[in-house]
Amino acid sequence: xxxxxxxxxxxxxxxxRRGAEHDEIRRAYFRLVREHPPESDPETFKxxxxxYEQLRSSEQRVRTDLYLLQPPPPWRPARVGSGSFxxxxxxxxxxxxxxxxxxxxxxxxxxxxxxxxx
Length: 118
Hints:
The chain has a domain at 10-69: Orthogonal Bundle (Helix Hairpins). The chain is built from 5 helices and no strands. It has helices at 10-14, 22-35, 42-55, 58-69, 91-101. The chain is elongated. The protein starts with 9 loop residues before the first helix and ends in a 17-residue tail after the last helix.
C-alpha cells in the first residue's frame, strides 16, 4: 500500500491499475467497503475512504497521478544563522519606505491642519 517515498498509492489501496475509469474506482470502493465495514475494521476503512477521496473526481485524479509520477522533494527547514539569506536593505530603500509611510516627505506643514467647522 505504501510507496518508496512514504506516500500512499490510492490505486494499490483500492486494488486498481493506474488510469482506471471512474466506474471501476467506484465499484472497487464499494466492494472494499463491504469487505471492511467501519464497524469491524475502522483503520482499513479509513485508508480505503482516503484513497477513494483522492480518486473520486477527475481533478483529484489528475493531481494524484501527477504526484505519483514525481512526489515533491522532502522539506528541509533552513538553518538559523547559516548566512543563506541576506536581510540587509539598501539605504535608499529604507528612506523611500520611511517617506512613504510617514510625513517625512511632506513639504507643506499646513497640509496637516484642517479647517474646524462648529
